[in-house]
Amino acid sequence: MTAATSQTGGMARLRRIAALIRKEGWQVVRDPSSIAIGVVMPMLLLVLFGYGLSFDVKNVPVAIVMEDVSAEARGAASSFELSDYFNAVQVKTMAEAERMMLDKRVNAIVRIPPDFARRMEQGTAEIQVLVHGTDANTARISLGYAQGAVATWMAREAAMGRIIASPPVSIESRLWFNDANNSSYFLVPGLIVLVMTLIGALLTALVVAREWERGTFEALFVTPVRPVEILLGKTVPYFILGMIGLALSILGAKLLFGVPIRGSLGLLVAVSMLYLIVALGIGLLISSLTKSQFVASQITIIATFLPAMMLSGFMFDIRSMPVAIQVITHVFPARYFVSVLQTLFLAGDIWPVILPNAAVLAVMASVLIALAIRATRKTIG
Amino acid sequence: MLDTLLRILALIRKELLAILKDPKSRISLIAPPVLQCLIFGYAATYDLNDVPYALLDHDRSAVSRALIARLDGSGTFTRVATLDVERQIADIINDQRALLVITIPYDFERGLQAGTAPAVQVIADGRNSNTAGTAQAYVSQIVTGYAADWQNSHGQPGAPVRMTTRAWYNPTLETRWYMVPALIGTITMMMTMMLTAMSVAREREEGTFDQLLVTPFRPSEIMVGKAVPAMMIGLTQSTLILLVAQLWFQIPFSGSFAMLYLGLFLFLAASVGIGLFISSIAGNMQQAMIGSFVLLMPFMLLSGLTAPIGNMPEILQYFTLINPLRYAISITHQIYLEGAGIRQLLPEMLALVAIAAVTLPFAAWMFRNRLT
Amino acid sequence: MTPAAPVSPVTARTLHKTFRRATGETVKALDDVSFEAREGTLTALVGPDGAGKTTLLRLIAGLMKPDEGMLDVLGITVADDPQAVQDRIGYMPQKFGLYEDLSVQENLDLYADLHGVGADQRKQIYPRLFEMTQLGRFRERLAGKLSGGMKQKLGLACTLVRAPELLLLDEPTVGVDPLSRRELWAIVLKLVHEDGLTVIVSTSYLDEAELCDHAVVMHAGKVLAQGTPSEITAKAEGRTFIIETPKGMPARSLQARLFQQDGVIDAVPEAGQVRVVLAAASEADALPLGDGTLQHHRAPARFEDGFMVLFAAVAERTRTSTMTLDQPSSQGSGAMAVEVQDLVRTFGDFTAVDHVSFQVRSGEIYGLLGPNGAGKSTTFRMLCGLLPASHGTLRVAGADLRTSRAEARRRLGYVAQKFSLYGQLSVDENLDFFASAYGLRGRRKADRIAWAKQQFELDAFSRLPSGQLPGGFKQRLAMGTALLHEPDILFLDEATSGADPIARREFWGRITALSEQGVTVIVTTHFMEEAEYCDRIIILDAGRSLAEGTPAEIRAHAAAQDGRQPTMEDAFIAIVETSRDGRAQQRPAG
Predict the structure, then answer these.
(1) ipTM > 0.95?
(2) Which residues pair with C298 in a beta bridge?
């Protein structure tokens, strides 16, 4: 009986867990695909989100159709030519401009009609702006810039006394937390969600399913190892890998893209750990239910990765979605994490945002861990 | 010739049987695309229709109340709080209760009458600067519009120049019109690329690929036999998403279906080519899986859908040239929304042909020449 | 609890276990199984595929619960506390899940840690394990890079890293060459006899069962018989004879003929002659065999003979192992079907096949034999055109399959080592697909598919997904598929690995019949007695050809042992060991 009792001692237990972790570590280091998804993928995403993707619209190619040659018309046209937001070319006829728009050489047409100067004196002048509306978002932003360019020009004219009218109100817009309106400020923190989801859920699901597929569990089961120890042996290494991914992302965000961290770093790490546990729980659960790498990876991508990208508020604001979809987003842990991340990076330690979101993540983590333990039984078939 | 054809037909039949025999796998090919299209069609939008805002009205005049009424009546803005003092602003934004705080200055009414252009302050939560910017633009549109009307009705000279705007192809500038047709390519590519990437890797792992290689099949026949079923499935999925776009989202179709299917056919050939390319290199299913995923990510992010290609650094712009999804999305948009003809589409279609013409023969060559 | 009664490490009473297949039907894996494994003894579970051996071992290991019955292991009711049992036993599953990207040492360390083996205990046990398994040289090698035999030995070492109170081994020698098999068994026997360990092993090698203290013969979930090996052997006592082969006749042809006869339970070629087991005890001069002109003498029964007698009583044996091809092979006999000249294949700086040459005449059965890692599979893959040769020439049916046009591949059939037809497709769908792949169509295609289904008795399974076929029928389907297009040359790669004795006899019956109709057959195998069916064999080790010739010529390499004729296995081991000793001596000099 001494043999049996020695297996339940705390030391023996720790030694077994340590052995399983060490084994998993070797496998991660030696399998190029783990490295690909644990290290290469975060770096790739960091570069893509930091440098490649920018929602900021600049240098919109625009054709200006000058149907009036007065000084006023030239002045109005110059407001587009001087703007950083536009790359303007002047063309003679509307037909020519339309051809350019059809060929996608320009994204907008600004038409200054023949009687511009005369109608300006009457106070009824018009500038027509046509945008290519396929990409609605870019189109709308461009229209906003066009409005701005014309207003600036008018204010300048009014200041020089050339026109009498004054604009009725001025609008003083301020963008808190992101004065420069830099889209990498919200994309790069959001990227942490993707990295954590990939490592936590997808990689874990793959490696657990692989053990089922290759039959390595069968021999492992008939040892003093307890199911909980197997779970820990699987989670700890990927937890560490996830934390490395987190460190890489935070460093990249800070050093490469100058994203501020206005909240406390400790809190950021703590909540990330919580989300990582949730992701690990999902990965473990999916893989122990499907036991096949192919199916596990398909389900994981559909159930975790895509929602993290589309339904978390990272790329598309949840407030813009229909109510039914907003309700669905509550099922996915990513939305709570994104909310905390954006606040901690850009706003600060704002407890009313952090607490409820972290609480939901904590509940999800405990439920998923409990389910994963239940699902991990040392039985075959 | 007839022999070749019959052999390829047998291969296609076998592939389809293997994929479609199991009811679970049949459903998994149909349900996820439709569901994704429905969910993402709603989720992927930059249009704001419910902006929570807080109001700090220092003026409390008839004019300011009329302005507020116009904001509240716009349907886009929902007032979640009415503040009394400035220091309340920080909390309500920080806690994300309001996306915007609109402050009307003390001398708003007097300023308007005096023509001194009083400043309305709009503070937005920039944690998602994209949404914030859009919301601010909405506010300024409403406020300027209101003020201009006020000027008109009070006999003040308005702005001498007005801007009128019109948008081609998408008059109300709805993002959904842009996003949903793009999902045809995006979702189909995800499914078909993974399907083909796994197909050869799986046969290699199960040993059936050797069994194929000892039969009289030529590598090119195997390639065609693998590519055609995947493309058939891809076309079916595309059709399903197209139906959702038209019947559910009711986005008007302006082009020719024949042209769209020609484009999709070429796009699928290119995607399947890349999938088979990965499959022929990968040593096992896990490598195929992760390999296709690592490629799919940049393909999806750099397709020009979420961020315009013109804004990317030059080196990434070059990368997009080998991205079939870039062409697919552009072709779908041009046909679906703009009704484009072959003249505009030819360069992009040729690019797809080029991708397929490189990847497919390479994969076929690798079938036999990969060192095991 | 009466303290006096000695408790057996394993006591099973009326165990039942039923599985439900995905298709809905239920399978009785264990049906009223009772047995006992006594302290310090070796118990063998023997029986064909699907007999329930693996299920029984999994129940003992606590990986499954019985539906009914009592199962005590080490005094513990397993179903109540499987962990308490798992803390104390060692279990080596059929496919031992070594971590392939961990080295030999790391795999061993992992299991030592899991079993709580301390550093000082390791100092004692590691040298012993390494000496026992001779893996010492490969400590740093990744487990994935080991040969099949070495993997099994490493699996065993991992299981033995802590002295268990009970050791369970599930088919530990499947796919293992005779040399490694002997070494593995030496280890197991030493553990039983010297350390007093209780061992339960399942096996389909019947000569292994002979080494046990207690044998449990199982069939379709039931225990057919149990007792000491000699008790099982005794069932065939007085019924076994050696028949001498008439001059000019291959032993396999005589065997095939005898096997067909009523009253004959079993017939196998053995050292150029044929061993038969009769249905009833008979006087030596009144054998119920044909015209009585055959020379014969009585032979002592073996375990295998007893096993076959037991099976003859329950299992309906297929005697239709005669195969008729629609069109006998077109090749003229005497022509060269396969020519291999100076074949070399290297992987990096490792030479897998080292200047091997041989020729196979059409209509011959030619065997490639060798230990794990000898280069058999590599040679085979090159012959089939699946792998390019680094150097040398090879011609199969007059063409190099790698570079020749697809038409040349039409002349060969290929059965892979592991089942490699489409598991999700039904039997009919697989046949249909491969028939089309070989360019058959219309009437002819229908005829050939009907032929295959009839010859291999697959009609009952037409719509079953082939992955769910019972093991033996998978083998038949693979053969049927490979013969659809009536190939001139048939390649069989370890086609009988893991197959039970009954399936193997059917298999060889068919091969013999094919060969008689002019089909050239090239096989690799680990069962040395199967080499007796071949016309000629080649023995490879470390990529080099060690010996080639007829079975009789090969057997002549070994001296007679304890008064009996050397078997093929004796000869094989002698040849390989001589060659290895020679190389070991050369090494210091060179």
Answers:
(1) no
(2) C241
